[in-house]
Amino acid sequence: MKISAPVTKNQTIEGTIEDLTYEGLGVLKVDRYPLFVADALPGETIKAVVTKAGKNFGYARCLERETTSPDRVEVKKEDRRLAQAGIAPLQHMTYAAQLVFKQHQIESLLAKAKLDIEVSETLGMEKPYQYRNKAQIPVRLVNGQLETGFYRQHSHDLVPLEDYYIQDARIDQAIIVVRDLLREYGLAPYNEADQSGIIRNIMVRQGYYSDDMMIGFITNSKTLPHAQDLIKGITAQLPHVKSIVHNVNNRATNVIMGPVTKTIYGEDVIFDKLLGNQFAISAQSFYQVNPQQTEKLYQIAIDKAQLSDRDVVIDAYCGIGTISLAMARHAGDVFGVEVVSDAVADAKRNAKLNHLDNVEFVANKAEYQMSKWQEMGMKPDVIVVDPPRKGLDETLIESATQMAPKRVVYVSCNPSTLVRDIQRFAERGYHVVGPIQPVDQFPQTPHIESVTLLERD
Ligand SMILES: C[S@@+](CC[C@H](N)C(=O)[O-])C[C@H]1O[C@@H](n2cnc3c(N)ncnc32)[C@H](O)[C@@H]1O
């Protein structure tokens, strides 16, 4: 039997938003068929036009709001570009409602999996904007002029921007300085259509406690024309820049940086602090983007780990060792594993920088290393995992539980893989203790970070 959508493209409909998707889109149902609507909140009655009608779901654009949710923040016309660019897709919700939305997202995934686990209120920020310490901004030609900005969502059309709202204001200022220098020296922006031009992206990293800034040029060409002029211009206008790097990426890919980064001014790294430890951060290493909330996140992970000074800890997916070093102050020995070798080099350097000699770092896939450690007979007391969005490899869960740690602390940036992995741990004798604690690392966006404690049954 052919199933068809109960609506057609361009049809106008009226209804009340029932829910929000994990991306923060309003859900408007026609019979049981869901239409997803941007900038629409639960309880709001709207008139909308169908923009896409697929087999199982569709999309609609709000034409008129007949009632307004108390959770709504009116967004100024000039700021709507931030939502279009996917920078702040939740900007139309009060911050309090954003925090509740994140808590509910985890609760509803747990309920779907029939898991009776409590979720605490999301720990939010006092000032939930200008928090990001890193930007990778595309450079393109728009109306005959070199522009910096963000892509309109689901497209490669550049929306020129100067105020990115969620970035450290010093980063916004640096992007303008660099953009103007690129214009002055006539460097051609990259053109994706025929892969011509020079400058693909500008990368900026800013310390939170330190004033250090790193600027990176990601180019399509092997060389960076006018490198000395650019360095001179940047350092004259932005004296806190400690490092300028050049990265070549001449492949037709959405991955921003190529494999090799060369330092063309100053140091290879910038320095910043987290929970009192100093960190050297290189261009290619992962470093949490919201330093204020990261300190809260790590402190919760440390508290949940309940370390004693003889405990052996594994920190899987350790990046530049930020969690490892924070734990090393409370534990016997800490072993970190991370796949990016530059990050491991940074982690080793960071252990020395902080005079911590009870930490060891290995460059390997966490799933391989965990099975190696298990075969070697290692018996950790605590395992911390902080994987990327795809969550844990099942073989890692197998080796980790075989090693029988007392506790597993799971730092997650994706509640759906977290819930899947909690079930996999449960099959191997580990259960969640206490509530899951969401921490808002990404205000104004639907991203959800949380910390979960699992213990052996
Ligand atoms: C969410 S980050 C966490 C990093 C670190 N714990 C922190 O808080 O800064 C995930 C890290 O996992 C690394 N990674 C991704 N896949 C991996 C794998 N299969 N094995 C080990 N590390 C991996 C990434 O390079 C990244 O550094």
UniProtKB/TrEMBL annotation:
<dbReference type="Pfam" id="PF01938">
    <property type="entry name" value="TRAM"/>
</dbReference>
<feature type="binding site">
    <location>
        <position position="288"/>
    </location>
    <ligand>
        <name>S-adenosyl-L-methionine</name>
    </ligand>
</feature>
<dbReference type="GO" id="GO:0070475">
    <property type="term" value="P:rRNA base methylation"/>
</dbReference>
<keyword id="KW-0949">S-adenosyl-L-methionine</keyword>
<dbReference type="Pfam" id="PF05958">
    <property type="entry name" value="tRNA_U5-meth_tr"/>
</dbReference>
<feature type="domain" description="TRAM">
    <location>
        <begin position="6"/>
        <end position="64"/>
    </location>
</feature>
<dbReference type="InterPro" id="IPR029063">
    <property type="entry name" value="SAM-dependent_MTases_sf"/>
</dbReference>
<dbReference type="InterPro" id="IPR002792">
    <property type="entry name" value="TRAM_dom"/>
</dbReference>
<comment type="similarity">
    <text>Belongs to the class I-like SAM-binding methyltransferase superfamily. RNA M5U methyltransferase family.</text>
</comment>
<keyword id="KW-0808">Transferase</keyword>
<feature type="binding site">
    <location>
        <position position="338"/>
    </location>
    <ligand>
        <name>S-adenosyl-L-methionine</name>
    </ligand>
</feature>
<dbReference type="InterPro" id="IPR030390">
    <property type="entry name" value="MeTrfase_TrmA_AS"/>
</dbReference>
<dbReference type="InterPro" id="IPR030391">
    <property type="entry name" value="MeTrfase_TrmA_CS"/>
</dbReference>
<feature type="binding site">
    <location>
        <position position="317"/>
    </location>
    <ligand>
        <name>S-adenosyl-L-methionine</name>
    </ligand>
</feature>
<dbReference type="GO" id="GO:0070041">
    <property type="term" value="F:rRNA (uridine-C5-)-methyltransferase activity"/>
</dbReference>
<feature type="active site">
    <location>
        <position position="413"/>
    </location>
</feature>
<dbReference type="InterPro" id="IPR012340">
    <property type="entry name" value="NA-bd_OB-fold"/>
</dbReference>
<protein>
    <submittedName>
        <fullName>RNA methyltransferase, TrmA family protein</fullName>
    </submittedName>
</protein>
<feature type="active site" description="Nucleophile">
    <location>
        <position position="413"/>
    </location>
</feature>
<dbReference type="InterPro" id="IPR010280">
    <property type="entry name" value="U5_MeTrfase_fam"/>
</dbReference>
<keyword id="KW-0489">Methyltransferase</keyword>
<feature type="binding site">
    <location>
        <position position="386"/>
    </location>
    <ligand>
        <name>S-adenosyl-L-methionine</name>
    </ligand>
</feature>
